[in-house]
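Bug #77: duplicate submission created two jobs. Keeping one. Sequence:
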Amino acid sequence: MPMRVSTPERWFRMRQCDLYQFQLAEGQKELPVELKDWIAENLADRTIELLGPSEHSGWIMGGPCYPTLAMSEEEVLKFSHRWEDDSGKSNDPRWQCYQRRYSDWFEQFDRIEVFKGSPPKGMQFRWLFCDAGLYWLRGHYQDSDASHRDFPGEPCIDDWWWACRKFPEIEAATVSSFMMGYDCLDHEGERNVTFQTYQQRGKDASLGPHLFDLKVLNSAKVRVREALGYFAEPDAHYGFY
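Kept job's structure:
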């Protein structure tokens, strides 16, 4: 039976809490039975989930997956008392548990600005177009290299999630599909609009279902041009390059 593998980003967007991942020692294929039995007995309301690599690491099929748990502060203390030494190292050499903080993930967006209206002339930008209107995204992640701070970068689902936190009307109005992309100049100095379509699914989103539907894509391109104020040129490309 196929098993669904999620990602750390999807966990943070939907749960908005820390995650605890188990990294197995080389040659160890799954968590030891005694650990799984202890979790089932002492953390009865918790379910072990598999998380794959980051969404930003590219195609994840076949990549490493990590058993992951959510735990409250009280449960963490109980777990640590049973399975770890004072330094946080596992007493069992077959695995090590690592904490990934939701706050650390969220703080990477502090430099991103989201605003309505036309962007300043000459400014490079990413954009989000949904039922609530057209929004501009500018900025960079905290770990961006200084030489790239003026480049908008390719939009990602995290941008949509962060924009929804700042503008709740986006989340409320975007009940189906929306588009994200960026406006840039190509090597010949021509302006290009590049975009992808997404599908909202509750508190999360995924790539839209119309990947090869030319009628839908052509309609989307027209909407993009009109929303950005470009009624003829530039060309609108689906997907990034």
